[in-house]
Specification:
Layout lengths: L2 H14 L12 E7 L4 E10 L2 E10 L2 H14 L4 H17 L19 H26 L1
Antiparallel strand pairs: 1-2, 2-3
Helix pairs in contact: 1-2, 2-4, 3-4
Length: 144
Amino acid sequence: MSLSDLYQEVILDHYRAPRNRGRLPDATVSLNAENPLCGDELRLDLDVQGDRIANILFEGRGCSISLASASMMTELVKGGTLSAAREAIARFKAMLRSGEEDEALGDATALVGVSKFPVRVKCATLAWTALEQALDELSADRAR
């Protein structure tokens, strides 16, 4: 099995059996995001305790890349610090710009091939951009 075949399997696994799917009724912050180019829609709910993401769930509809990416992202940042989540977002976006794998991203490394398809990059980054916006919203709320 080639690396690209393995990556395809990882993507399909996250699409078929998404992790952290659902809603948090008492979310610290919730955000809706969409990709108007292809119709992907996503809702992201975070439960933040101190400087940690205690829980993160998503709901949405869209293409396999968008939903698999959301599943991978939630797995990576759940339980981690807010600064680690921001670093993961930056690393993910850098990986898609460079087309070079970043093993620190766990399963999300499987999305490196998306970098060859600029239209699909927006699908892959939807959840990550939503997380970034949610963290920005949280920071602004805490600053008040």
